[in-house]
Amino acid sequence: MPSLTVSLPSLTELHEGEYVYLYPDVNHTPQCSSQPLTFSASGLPDGLSLDHSTGLITGVLPHSLANCTNPIREYTITLTATDGIDTASASATLRIHNTDYTLLSPGDQSNTEGDYVYLDLQSLWGSAYAGLNMQAPLIFSTPSTSAPNSLPPGLSLDPNTGIVSGTISSDAATPNNSPYSYYVTITLQNLADGDTSTISFNWAVIDNPNLAEPPPDPGNDPPPENEPPTIEALSLVNVSDASRNLAPRTQDLLQATVIGVSDPDGDPVSVRLEWRVNGVTVQTVEGTSATFDLAQPGHGDVGDQVTVAVILDDGSGPIEAASSNVTVANTPPVVTDILVEQGYQAFEDDVYYYLVGQRAAMHFLVQDDDMDQGQGNDQLRLEVGGELPPAENGWYISDYQNGEFFLEATIADHGDPDQPTKYYPLNICAKDNYDAGDPPIILAVTHPHVTRILVTPPATMAGWGTALNPYLMRAGRRETFGVRIEGVGFGGGVPWGGWIWWRLWDDDFADSLPNQNDLLQGDTRETVTMVGGPTGAWFVNTTFELTADAASDDIIGRDGNTGAGWPEGAVKELYFYVWWWYTVLWGSARSPIFYVEWVP
Question: What is the pLDDT of residues 494-515, one digit of tens each?
Answer without folding.
Answer: 555 578 889 999 886 544 444 4
